[in-house]
Amino acid sequence: MSIIAITIASANPSARYLSAIKKYSGLGFTEVKNKIQNNNYLAETDGDDPDKLQELKSLIDDLTKSGASVKIFDSDPYAEGVTQFEEISYEEFIKNINRLNEILEEIKDLDDELSR
Prior knowledge:
Blueprint: E1 3-8, H1 15-25, H2 29-37, E2 43-46, H3 50-65, E3 70-76, E4 84-88, H4 90-114
Antiparallel strand pairs: 1-2, 1-3, 3-4
């Protein structure tokens, strides 16, 4: 299973994106601010769940519109017992979402064919 995570590069987090992250994660403002300042992952989600990925995409879009510099990371599901993250571009993140949706649509079509 793949995990997608984000960080924000900022020495002085804006209140606009602190509230967006708080709303998404349920963390308190102080904890969010500390995570940003320590360059820790702010949000992590299942990279195989299209609904969760869409929620994360919405958060990334909101943060970017608020002026945040968001970094996106994808885990290596084949790492030796430790989750290894690698930075990916926003475009690659969107391609991953689209590819997952296509695969799920193909599976649904195959299921429909088999049930006839």
